[in-house]
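[recover] target loaded
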């Protein structure tokens, strides 16, 4: 199951973030700092948690970038995919695909012009299967991927 994370989920988000960074550091304030960070991101960041057997096993977030208005043109926004992570012992079970499908459907519903991300080398095939393509040399990062929005 994938659902949008709320304020009460800061502990689960913090737990997954610590696993992702392989932090074996005792940090009793980390969950509170994560809650503060999530709150400070406001409406422009949406974070989802994936659950398996009543435990959080994955997360992903989408940050909305809003373009400066231009005369005669409607408002435009695009999304940056970040913090995509599935616990190593839960990979290859469709969790990542479910998270990404949820994120892409949300971006399409919001009318984003595009989605952008900078994936790890290992995840390049995963994102290519989902329709992400290289942004091109002009972007300055050979791993930057883009998925055009539904109207592009």
């Amino acid at each position: 199951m994938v659902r949008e994370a709320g304020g009460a989920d800061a502990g689960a988000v913090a737990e997954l973030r610590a696993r992702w960074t392989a932090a074996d550091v005792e940090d009793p304030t980390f969950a509170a700092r994560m809650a503060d960070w999530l709150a400070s991101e406001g409406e422009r960041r949406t974070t989802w948690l994936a659950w398996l057997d009543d435990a959080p096993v994955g997360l992903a977030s989408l940050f909305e970038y809003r373009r400066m208005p231009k005369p005669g043109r409607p408002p435009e926004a695009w999304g940056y995919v970040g913090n995509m992570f599935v616990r190593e012992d839960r990979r290859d079970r469709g969790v990542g695909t479910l998270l990404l499908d949820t994120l892409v459907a949300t971006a399409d519903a919001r009318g984003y012009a595009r989605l952008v991300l900078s994936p790890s080398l290992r995840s390049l095939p995963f994102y290519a299967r989902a329709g992400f393509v290289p942004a091109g040399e002009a972007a300055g990062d050979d791993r930057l991927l883009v998925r055009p929005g539904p109207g592009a």
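[recover] notes: The longest strand covers residues 55-66.
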